[in-house]
Amino acid sequence: MPALLSKAEIKKRLGRLDGWKSEGKFVTKTFEFEEFMDAIDFVNQVAKVAEAQEHHPDVWIRYTTVKLEIQTHSEGGVTDWDIRLAKEIERSVKPRQVA
Question: Among the CATH numbers 3.30.160.20, 1.10.3720.10, 3.30.930.10, 3.30.1360.20, which is that of 7-92?
């Protein structure tokens, strides 16, 4: 299992990821969409990335808002796996967000 990252290491790594932040024992990002189906399409894209990585975020959907929360549940906090998943979501998923 991967080791938990320090708060300083999490902050450093998230500095390279637009809009991601540390919240408690998670890394998170909130996405806003024009339409409900845009949000659902985004979640489906994220699901494909997560499944390929065999690492899955917690997903919160509230109409046109989607919040992703990522942690390595077995470790109870943020590890390298979580940062890699956030990077892959940023690289692979191109959401049609509200400007």
Answer: 3.30.1360.20
